[in-house]
Design a protein that fits this description.
By secondary structure, the protein is mainly alpha-helical. Helix content is 86%, strand content 0%. The protein is elongated and about 90 Å long.
Length: 106
Amino acid sequence: MAKKKKTQGVDKAAAIERKLNKMTKRPDKSKKAQLSKAAAASQGNLWDRSLRFLREVVQELKRVTWPTRKQTLSTTGVVVALVILVSVFLGMVDFVLSRLIRLLIG
């Protein structure tokens, strides 16, 4: 009788774990083992994996939403303007600090 209750508890725990795995989208351990075996079998040699990778890269690049020429030019203009602005600011700070140090050291 005690043995039966113990196995029922284990069954309940396993059922709860399966429910949690489904809720959190994690595969349970048996599926995970099957997936790793399938992944190991499908990897193939280095050449096959490299070709598969390159095909997937091309597919991904086809899905990318590229900016228009107008967007590219406007963002480039903003970046160039900010670089000039920051460089002028840092140049002025450097000039002021160097004059201050010269006055102090003298």
